[in-house]
Amino acid sequence: MTALRETVTGDPVPARFSINQETVKQWSLPQLVRGCTAAGVSAVGLWREPVQGYGVAAAAALVREAGLTVTSLCRGGFLTTSDPDERKARLEDNRAAIEEAATLGAPTLVLVSGGLPPGSRDLAGARERVAEALAELGPYAAERGVRLAVEPLHPMFASDRCVVSTLAQALDLAERFPADQVGVVVDTYHLWWDDTVAAQIARAGAGGRIAAFQLADWVTPLPEGVLLGRGQLGDGAVDLRWFRERVEEAGHTGRIEVEIFNPALWDRDGDEVLAETLDRFRRHAFGPAPA
Amino acid sequence: MTALRETVTGDPVPARFSINQETVKQWSLPQLVRGCTAAGVSAVGLWREPVQGYGVAAAAALVREAGLTVTSLCRGGFLTTSDPDERKARLEDNRAAIEEAATLGAPTLVLVSGGLPPGSRDLAGARERVAEALAELGPYAAERGVRLAVEPLHPMFASDRCVVSTLAQALDLAERFPADQVGVVVDTYHLWWDDTVAAQIARAGAGGRIAAFQLADWVTPLPEGVLLGRGQLGDGAVDLRWFRERVEEAGHTGRIEVEIFNPALWDRDGDEVLAETLDRFRRHAFGPAPA
User: Fold this and answer.
1) How far apart are the first and last CA of chain A?
2) Distance from CA of A2 to the nearest CA of B (A)
3) Is residue A5 part of a domain?
């Protein structure tokens, strides 16, 4: 209801905003809920580990009682193994993640596919195993009101984290399944460099596949390991407004999650980071384009 | 003639091999020439800075007298600036690079396009300025027997080094010009993650656009700045044999350069690194596929 009220008072920006928990990782779950309430932020993206640490049912009650919308749960996936026992364990863990999403009322479970198995160079085979796992998990998720969202990660993660590197690949996978079972994540950090991304966003929208839209900026130099180098909105190379407009044209006018992995943000006061992030979101994803 | 003799003696591998100077950066130019001769390596890829340091004409004489083939000169490019004075200076520098390549007898000048200008988020505009520069430089190069080779760099370099991130993009650029003016570089390090790369290699071959084929392996974790993290052949995720077969199917049966930027190789004895690299080349790009 917060979202609606904000729209009515003439400021649509907070009504579109969702803060991914990892952006303010310094906060506990109760701190996150208190901080969002204080800042007028009405939606959050959650991660499994802190939710499990607090207790899934307790976390669900906490966010529900605060009136917060849960836009997504991160993350399932890591489905590329060729070892039968490991595969069984991974599927089981993903079913648990689906149940956690359902308990939290999160419509979307973000899936990071997984990298190449140790010693393997077979990208095509790894991608096919992701498809096989989606076939098993998709119906299980849809029965519980949760949609799996395949997230293409930047190609720099292809060997060790995610063999799905482009939105086209993610859609090739997702489109093998019904749209209520498998969608995709559009994340500016991972996709900004791709000159085919506008066409692929349109394709995703036309098929009803945009399950989540996430923002982070691209800044260099990348840190060692490249995982924790995402930039605050406006600090980097990504034309966030352009992305938001393309995603809206494709029919996704719902929540936009800001998900920034950056230790410099985690070292600061959470309230300050949240206020800055909302301000940057307003100016760089929505404000007037620079002259 | 070395290459021919090697083919006749039944070992085609050294006849395909070229060592890029940067792989054994610890060597001066005379050391490189001596080391190649001692190892039976008959081709080198050179870089402008060490060649200029030695003197371009002297370097050309040195490699010619040693009977070495120069497969490419690295590098021109950095053509994305929107500042008129800087653009003029960059074009001038590229014309100098073309002349250096001609002096060295290098048929190919590798071009790294350049990143986004400071503060810009306009990838499409930057790419268009690369095309404009190619239109100016292409005829100048062809008149001197040199072909410009647009190198797509891994998308992790898109903001600060190269706005051309895929082989498809490089071909979209190159194909605006005659094939004797502008070709492309196929480098496994930059392209290995791309599920469309086989089709794009075939496209490049059909159009006679493969100006250089370079090998390096992909290893993680990436170092800070991600520039110097390339892996020795066989140490990483890239199926080098698969790439070599695709490039051969596309009609390129010429030299293959090994170009690895890795300080761990530079800390070692150059002869040892060259011998290891040739051995890895034999086993991972040519040897029988593992069972």
Assistant:
1) 36
2) 34
3) no
